Amino acid sequence: MLISKEIARRRTFAIISHPDAGKTTLTEKLLLYGGAVQLAGSVTARKNQRATTSDWMELEKQRGISISSTVLQFFYDDFCINLLDTPGHKDFSEDTYRVLTAVDAAVMVIDAGKGIQIQTRKLFEVCRRRGIPIFTFMNKLDRPARAPLELLDELETVLGIKSFPMNWPLGDGPHFKGVYDRLTQQVHLFEKTPGGVYRAAVKVKDIHDPSVKDALPFNIYEQVVEDLALLDGAGADFKKETVWAGELTPVFFGSAANNFGVQLMLDKFLELAPAPLPRISNGVEVTPEAPFSGFVFKIQGNMNPKHRDRVSFIRIVSGKFERDMSVWNTRNGKLVRLSNSQRMFARERETLDAAWAGDVIGIVGNYDFEIGDTLTEVPGIKYEEIPRFTPECFAFLHNPSPAKFKRFRDGLDQLLKEGVTQVFELLDTTQRVPLLGAVGPLQFEVLRYRLETEYSAESRLEETRWEFLRWLRKRDLAATEPSLPTGAALGKDSTSANVIFFPTKWSIDFFLDQNPKWEVSETPFESL
Ligand SMILES: Nc1nc2c(ncn2[C@@H]2O[C@H](COP(=O)(O)OP(=O)(O)OP(=O)(O)O)[C@@H](O)[C@H]2O)c(=O)[nH]1
Ligand SMILES: [Mg+2]
Fold first, then answer.
1. Structural domain of residue 49, as residue ranges?
2. 16, 18, 20: which to mutate for ligand 1, most atoms within 8 A of CB?
3. Residue 506, strand partner residues
4. Which of 15-19, 385-389, 522-526 shows the highest mean pLDDT?
5. Which residue is closest in CA terms to ligand 1's atom 23?
């Protein structure tokens, strides 16, 4: 097949939202429609029930939340879909933001009973900054939901994005009967399947069909007809270009857990979402048809407990990938042979011989890769996509059993490579205990849990009083040693850049006041 044809059939997207809105559940149902899983798992699964495909990590199963993003590649119709399920919890937002660099579109899931929540708003902002088209899935209509017009209004007032409802819910809570597809002008009445594990049966009818009227309580039917007339009257134009520009979001209603409206969304999404688009390297556009290039956006070790190995996830930006090809790593100028390439399906994987722009592939083994590395056939290409984060919590990680020092060190090195937390060192100290920095304290918990379960290494956390970190540099080359406010300390990040830890916001202002020849930044200076 021609490369352009392969690229045109690829759709690479992330599912994002506030915790618990139903991302993992929706992911599971999308897989069901893609024929990739026969029986969709349930996030509420208890011990002896099955778990979902994408929350495979032990801690995720225990807590019923997503901790780490998951990559799933599958085929549906003629499309090759790369789907990335992300964690909603704010403590894991570094991972989510990295994933957003690897996709061409996002599906934003909203709990229709709760409306837009804080974390959705933050993630939406990131998508907007990246100019990613956003599709909205209003979920949990099987529970009492806010009025659909109110939800659309919220998209506009809170997020500032115009919306176009592709379908409209027929009732909510116990009266939720299905959705009306505005384009085909047909009603989709759903039948409940036990636990929503199978593909839902669907009856397609005209809205004026007596059976539709009969299926709904009279006042709800009236309301739906009135809403629809209002929407048609408002007559907002639907143009694919405005969706691609991130100015308009197509909205779908449904219930992921019950399989309502999932396929309608998937089909429309595939039709409307863009295939891989060009990206920028050193100010120059690289088209998807150019020779092979891509970047590492995620590294994960021990996905398969049987093989202690490491997977580096690469988003292919351009060209065709072939197993065993040799490419340049722009960061260190070294040529590497990409031998052990895998198609990823959560923790499962299979050997992959070829892949195209848009695909997310896994390279397994101890390669010298770091998150953010560009791999390219043409030397000099460099993608600077991965954002840096300012940690807000800091703690020392002690090793309580010196006999297990090697395990502790190896485990920690690996987990730091994955970016589970950031690491710093303090100046003016003889203590050799790693100082960790995280966006949220759950990151420390995951690190300790994984050290223990994957490396049999215990650890002890010692919290610190710092709450702010700033990168530091001289504004004036003649500057002498800075003077520090009480409680602040100097240190270095993993690239040896100078940083300073502060206990309070106030002490940052005080520092700047006292040291006019120095300047600070919330992100490393070279990445500004
Ligand atoms: N009633 C109802 N519950 C749902 C629906 N979809 C998901 N849920 C439930 O909502 C809870 C959270 O679902 P998840 O899919 O884990 O949510 P998530 O967005 O992936 O959560 P995080 O990844 O932890 O941010 C689970 O208990 C689901 O069973 C739905 O359509 N209706
Ligand atoms: Mg999840």
1. 10-169+235-272
2. 20
3. none
4. 15-19
5. 66
Which of 123, 97, 100 shows the shortest CA–CA distance to 110? 123
User: Which residue pairs from 116-119 have beta carbons closer than 8 angstroms and sit at least 24 positions apart in sequence?
Assistant: 116/154, 116/155, 116/158, 116/159, 117/17, 117/18, 117/21, 118/18, 119/17, 119/18, 119/19, 119/88, 119/89, 119/90, 119/93
Among 330, 461, 449, which residue's Cα sits nearest to residue 395?
Answer: 461
For residue 290, give both structure tokens.
């150019």
The pTM for the full model equals: 0.90
> Measured in angstroms, how far is the CA atom of residue 26 from the centroid of ligand 1?
8
Q: How confident is the model at residue 200 (pLDDT cuts 50, 70, 90)?
A: low
Q: How many angstroms is it from 105 CA to the middle of ligand 1?
A: 21
284 and 267: one domain?
no
Strand, helix or coil at 108?
strand
Same domain for 468 and 413: yes
CATH code, domain carrying 70: 3.40.50.300
d(CA 190, CA 455): 48
Q: Domain total for the chain? A: 3
State in Å: Cα 280 to ligand 2 middle.
Answer: 31
Judged against a pLDDT cut of 80, whether residue 43 lies above it is answered with no
Q: Are residues 397 and 460 in the same domain?
A: yes
Q: What is the CATH number of the domain that holds 304?
A: 2.40.30.10
